Structure formats: C-alpha cells, structure tokens
Amino acid sequence: MPELPEVSAIAAYLDSRMAGLPIRRVDVASLSVLKTADPPYTALPGRVVTAVDRIGKYLVIRTAGDDGEIDLVIHLSRAGWVRWSGGMSPRPLKPGGKSPIALRVHCGLPGEGFDVTEVGTQKRLAAWIVRDTSDVERIAGLGPDVLAVSRDEFGAILRAHSSRIKNLITDQRVICGVGNAYSDEILHTAKLSPFATAKNLTDEQIDALHGAARSVLLDATARLEDSEVATMKSEKRTGLRVHARTGLPCPVCGDTVREVSYTDRSFQYCPTCQTGGKVLADRRMSRLLK
Known about the structure:
Blueprint: H1 4-18, E1 23-28, E2 48-55, E3 58-65, E4 68-75, E5 80-85, E6 101-107, E7 113-118, E8 126-130, H2 137-140, H3 151-159, H4 165-169, H5 180-190, H6 203-224, H7 232-239, E9 258-261, E10 266-269, H8 271-274
Antiparallel strand pairs: 1-6, 2-3, 3-4, 4-8, 5-7, 6-7, 9-10
Helix pairs in contact: 1-6, 3-6, 5-6
C-alpha cells in the first residue's frame, strides 16, 4: 500500500509535470471508483491544474476554473498506483474491461497524462471530485499528519491511548500517513516492540519514536523523490530494513528478522533490537506477548 513517502513522491512527480497545464479529458473505466457525483468528472476538462499535493495518504490534484477550485482526490488503497505517459492513446477507455486502468487523465500536450491503475480482485481504489477536500468524509476524519505533529503533541496522543503502538501509529484517525511497512521501519529504528502499549511508553521511548517517525519518513521521501514513478516500488523495497524481510539478517545486529501473521497481513521485527530477544507469538496461534 502506498504510504506517506510514496504518495508525497508521486505528488511531487505529477506536480512537476502538470502544474499550470489544462486537463484535456478524463476517462473513467470503472465508475465504481468514483465516490462522488457532484461535481461530475466531466467538470474537470478545461480546468487548469494549480498544484498536486497530498493529505495523509491521499493524492490531491487541485484545479482552478471560472467557478473556483475543484479537487480530484485519489486514495490508492492496497493495490493502486499512478502511471505517467507521454504517449497515451487518444482512444477512450472501455468501461468494464480487463485492463488494470481505472481512471485516465489527459493533461498538457496530446498524449500526455496519467493512468490510475489497480491490480488484483479486491477493488478498493477510490476517487472523489470535490470543491473542498473536507467534503471527503475519510479526509475529514483523519488525525494530524505524522510529520506535522510536534514531540509534545505526539506524546499527548500516545498518553491518551491504551492501544498497542503498532496499531496506534497506523490508525489514520489518530495520526495519518503511516501504514504497515513504514510502521515496521519506524518501530525498528526506535527499538520498540510492536506490542508495547502506547500510554506506558517512557519519555525516552516517546522521544525515540517521534524522532524515528520523522527520520524514516523524510529519508524515504527524499530517496523516492529522485525516482521515476515507475521505479518507486522497487526503490522502496531496497530501503527497507525489516519489513518484508522475514528470515533475513537484521542489518543492525544480525539477528533473524521475524514475522507475526494475521489473516490478511503480516509485519516484521527484530527480536534483538526490539523485544529483548523474545520471539512474539503469532496472533493466529496464540495471544500477544508484551
């Protein structure tokens, strides 16, 4: 799932190519992707892109016209991605086809624009066309951006929750921007167990967690912003130290990276760096170990 670094890098990539250019046409191959009907997607052609940025893990294409601002908001969910092209076909997309392309935006010169794609059978990609991003209910319910939270604000949020820290920092209603992959990296950098209780963290642990969140996310964003959109996924994988590295040696201490599996996801950690050498129980088999 694209998280803050990927969405931020994609936004910067698209902004460098689209800002100041008109949208010529929008093709929708899957109407189920659109979660709003007013304004319609047909209101976008003829408008000028003013900026592309992000809110949490949401991509926001901002446009201007005679009737003010209209935003195209995209959530890539688990299997969505963006693909820029300078040689896009002028033929409209066929609704209901087998292509992974759900949405196509023609912008700038003929042949230029981007596709929003989704692979797999679980269709969770979503797009909204709104006059204000707060009109997107999911955005209105987001917590503060993880990179905008001061250390004291971060500490207050942790003190107010009795959740496991892994669950808390991936709960977009509490703090937005972090998902499964980068939470593994943040916790490994901070040397914290994924099952530690948020409100029981010491001041030193809160300092470490806040600093790790900033360093991991900012470093990943800087690395990805030097990449083409097409190579960001592979570049992300090369920068991960524990996530998706089950069975491999920890790059810090050499211990074997372990995994805890759930029905639809898993996460990874280093016992030596994070849990005092303890191997955490698999949630599918037994209770959590602290």
